[in-house]
Structure formats: C-alpha cells, structure tokens
Design a protein that fits this description.
By secondary structure, this protein is an alpha/beta fold. The protein has helices spanning about 5-25, 45-55, 70-80, 95-115, 150-160, 180-190, 230-240, 245-260, 280-285, 310-320, 330-335, 380-395, 410, 425-430, and strands at about 30-35, 60-65, 85, 90, 120-125, 125-130, 135, 140, 145-150, 165, 170, 175-180, 195-200, 230, 270-275, 290-295, 300-305, 340-345, 350-360, 365-370, 400-405, 415-420, 440-445. The protein is globular. One of its GO terms (cellular component) is cytoplasm.
Length: about 450
Amino acid sequence: MHKQKKEVVAGVSGIREVFNYIRRYRQKTFVLKIEDSLLDSTLFPLLMKDIIQLHDVGINIVIVPGIRHTIEQKLDQAGIRTRFVDGVRITPVSALPLVKLAAMEVAETIISQLGAGGANGIMGTWIRARSLGVSQGIDFEFTGRIEKIRSDIVVKLMEENFIPVLYNVGFNSTGKSYNVNSNEITCCLCRDLDVIKLFFIGQDEGIRVENLTFPGEIVPNANGIFSNLDLSQVDYILEHNTDQLTYHYREYLENALEVTRPQNGVNRVHIISGTREGSLLTEVFSSTGLGTMVYRNDYAYIRMATPEDVPEILLLMEDYVKQGNLVLRSESEINDRINDYYIYEVDRAIYGCGALYPQDNNQGEIGAIAVNPSYKCKGVGKKIMRYLIGLGQKRGMNRLFLLTTQTSDWFYGFGFYPGTPSSLPLGRKVRYNNERNSRVLLLDLVSRSQDTTPG
Ligand SMILES: CC(C)(COP(=O)(O)OP(=O)(O)OC[C@H]1O[C@@H](n2cnc3c(N)ncnc32)[C@H](O)[C@@H]1OP(=O)(O)O)[C@@H](O)C(=O)NCCC(=O)NCCS
C-alpha cells in the first residue's frame, strides 16, 4: 500500500479505537490519585486539560490529591519534624494546622486548573474519621483512619457534572479533625462507588523491573517497565521483593490488589507518569499504554472443585433445590463427577459453582449453576457461565445444552436457544424427567468466536 494511504488507514483505525473506548467509558467513574509533586511541573496544566477532556466526553472523574510533598515543605518551613512508622506519619498537634493548610492549598490549585479549563471542581472532605490511636505502644496522635466516606454526596456531585476533589482531612462525630492517608481515601472510594478504573499519577512512569524478581512469562516493555500485570503476578512480585520494592511501588501494588478484589469491582489500575505528555489519554484510549496496568483476570477465582468442596457445594445448592431451581444431587453423585465441577472462590469462601458434564456426540451439559445469595447480581454467575462455555470450546465440544425450569431468560443472554428433549444426546434423552418438564436450551459452539475462552 502507498505510504500516505497506509498512514491514513492507521489514523482512521486509531480514531475508531478512541470512539469505541468513549462508548465503553461514558457514564463510568474513574478515580485519579494525583501526586502533589506534579503541581510544579510545566506539564501539570496539560495533564489537567486531559482530565477535563475525559470529563467532557462523559466520564465521571473523582480526584484524590496526594499531599506528602507539600506537607514536607510546610513542616520544613516551620521547623517541625515528624516521624513515620511503617509508612504512616505520626501527626503531632503542632503539625495538624499545616497538614490542613497543605491539603487545602493542593486541592485549591487543582480546582483552579479545572476552572481554567471550563470544568467545575469542588473540594471537600466528606470523610468521617477516627483516631488511629496507640498501636504497639506508639501514639499516632492526630493521624486518623477512615470510618466512612459520604459517597452519596460524591455521587450527587458527579450527577451534577462536578469533579469532586477529596483531600486528606477527616472529622470525627464531634468535629475533631485527623490527617488521613490519601491512598486510603482512594481505596474507600473504589469500594463505595462503581469505579472501573483507578489511576495513580505521579513521577514514576510505571513499575520498573530493575532489581526486581518477577515471573518468567512477563516481558517488560522497551523502557524497562512492566506494561501489564495480572493479580497473581502482582502477588508474586510483592512476595519475592520484600527488600527491593520502594515504598511507593509496594503501596501502588498493594492498593491495586485491594481495589481489584471481586467485591470492589475495579477492573484496572494504571500507574502512570504525570510528567510525560499524553500518558493519561494514551492509557485510556489505546490498547498499548505507557505505564503499568494491573488488571483483574475474570477467571482467576474459578478453579476445579475437589472432594473437600463437596459439603459446601451441597450447602450452596440446598435452598435452590427446595425452591425447584436445581435438581437434587447426592454427595456421592457430586463426588463421582467432581472433576466436572468448578467453583468461584474468594478468600476460601465459595461464591458460586457450576458444572460441565461431557456427553455423547461431542456435546456437553451445563448444570449445577448456583450463586451464593449474598453475592447475587455481582457478575459471579456470568463469569462461571462464560468460563464453562469457554471450557467447552477449548475441549472441542460442538454443542452445549442445559435443562432449566426457571432461569431460561438468563441463559438466553449467553446465546442459548430453545430446543426440545428430542434434541438431547441419546444417553441424556433416556434420563429426561418428564414430570419435571424442564426446558431444554442449546448453544452451538462451532461458529462462536474465541472471546469467552478462559485465560
Ligand atoms: C441465576 C444465577 C446463577 C445468576 O447468577 P448471578 O451471579 O446472581 O447473576 P449475574 O450477576 O451474573 O447476572 C445478573 C443479571 O442476571 C439477571 N438474573 C438473575 N437471575 C435471573 C433469572 N432467573 N432469570 C433472568 N435473569 C436473571 C439479573 O436480573 C441481572 O440482570 P442485569 O445484569 O440486567 O441487572 C443465580 O441467581 C442463582 O444462583 N440462581 C439460583 C440457581 C439457578 O437458578 N440456577 C440455574 C439452574 S438451571
């Protein structure tokens, strides 16, 4: 192809990629933790402009400023020295007014920049905190821990098109103020709000591989940065680099692990530099960002069941059997086919289960789909289903089927279509329970794309 034409085609596909991302992220929430050391950078106004552009295309933005650098400056000027214990600053009463001043100054600078670009930032603490107290004989004085964030206020402000800026001061029920950690604010927001992306924007371009031990399958990018890390790789790096990881890197990675836990819902955490032009937009609008992205593998929590899981599987299914959603299976029936069962497990708690039973004629039956009522409607069922469909594809099955009494609408969402008992493979047809009269649903796998294949 002619060089100029090639460039135009590449440009067009880039534009299409951006539109796709905009569609995907509109009305979704990003939380941005921005280090205050960037405030003096000549590129800071450009970074703020990029944030406003994201907001302008309909992405909800919440900003949490890091304040450490400004606090240090103020304490130095006042000749006050403070001590850190495990990365946590002890805040004496003399330091508290300076902490507050630093927090407000930084938030105010951010809001002015937003205002200059035509966006409405609004600052507040909306944070209920209490004293960290005395731990192992050490009194943390006016350092606090977050009790709760008024996330309802944050949501309302975003609905009104504001960009909330939450700085690191919290109040207790009597109005006493505490210095709280901005990373803790970030994590709380990710727990409370429906956040899909969290950005740590600082001086680091990402996590550098230098001096670190990491799993062999990871290939760093040309700049010596980890481009993508899944959660098991993050675990590995944290575990094998106790002394090598800087405080910053450890904090980024530990927070990334925390917010991407299934109950928190953040899919991706990006660690990017605020001193490299365009790093935020590149990270959001292209598949090859410049920093480090930590991502959750949707299937990381699914594993094959073992005989030890059988009592819990039975317990999980018990009520659904009583309600008529599931057929009764005995302990020995499950045990005999335990390798066909898969469970979704987090921190040793079983959130859900499902099974794929191989059948004649290269077919597979999906069954025993159940989600613990406490974790319903959080996507657990969908992930189990997609996993089992992907497994069927991987095993070269050409058709999946299932029998259901009350859940057909849900299964249609995965592409299943209605069949009849006569569509079942012979061995299964003879065991069809006419009295139960379940609906038969079918899914042909041959023509399906690979996107459901478990990683
Ligand atoms: C059906 C079941 C597996 C869904 O799992 P889940 O983790 O709660 O569901 P997900 O979070 O993946 O999906 C939620 C969506 O499914 C919908 N949904 C849940 N149960 C449904 C049902 N019986 N029929 C139709 N839609 C249903 C929810 O309304 C929600 O819709 P939305 O995304 O538009 O808000 C779960 O509710 C369950 O265990 N049910 C009882 C057991 C059962 O019926 N198993 C199937 C036997 S054949």
